[in-house]
Amino acid sequence: MKKAKRMIMAGTMAATITIGGGLWNPKTSEASPLQPASVQVPVSAAAAAVPTQRKKDDFLESLGKSSDDEVYEALYGGKSLAAIAEEAGQDAQAVVSLQVEELTRQLDDRLASGMLSPEAYRAQLAELPEIVAQSVHGGKAAH
User: Fold this and answer.
1) Fewer CB within 10 Å, N- or C-terminus of the chain?
2) Is pLDDT above 70 for 12?
3) Are 102 and 84 in contact (CB under 8 A)?
4) pLDDT at site 61
5) CA nearest 62: which of 28, 44, 88, 40?
6) Separation between Cα atoms, residue 8 and residue 30, nearest integer Å
7) Which of 86, 93, 98 lies closest to 58 in space, CA to CA?
8) How far is it, in rounded angstroms, from Cα 74 to Cα 95?
């Protein structure tokens, strides 16, 4: 039960941070279904995948793992991301820093695109390190 609760908590936190204020933005709720949305397509799928792959590799490296499956199995087994990193001789704070950096970039993009107000941006940015640290440490305060 405790393992399932951790998985649900981590998933909920990730979804909440990812979705953020995007659903409640007046610009998105006023969008007309009759007007086509503009979509920007990268020059090549390979070019677009490079930054994503690098982020994934950095994340796996910070945990001392070589695949997503290894991380999934450890999480499913009830370990926190901090415990996974520490067992591999890695610094759990590096995992926190990496995730805060990535989520900060996402918040920056949302602010720049108008999906977040400056007030919402500042509020979410201020609480981001604590939320990520709690998530990485399995819901417990970082130590």
Assistant:
1) N
2) no
3) no
4) 87
5) 88
6) 32
7) 98
8) 15
Six-digit token pair at 133? Answer: 């640290």
Instruction: Supply the mean pLDDT for the chain.
Output: 75
Write the pLDDT tens digit of every residue in 30-43: 444 444 444 444 54
Copy the structure tokens of residue 123: 């509020």
CA distance 45 to 96: 29
What does the H/E/C string look like for the chain? CHHHHHHHHHHHHHHHHHHCCHHHCHHHHCCCCCCCCCCCCCCCHHHHHHHHHHHHHHHHHHHCCCCHHHHHHHHHCCCCHHHHHHHCCCCHHHHHHHHHHHHHHHHHHHHHHCCCCHHHHHHHHHHHHHHHHHHHCCCCCCC
Q: How many CB atoms lie within 10 A of CB 21?
A: 18
In the predicted structure, residue 129 carries a pLDDT above the cut 90: yes
Per domain, the residue ranges of the chain are 2-14+49-136
- pLDDT at residue 66, as a whole number: 85
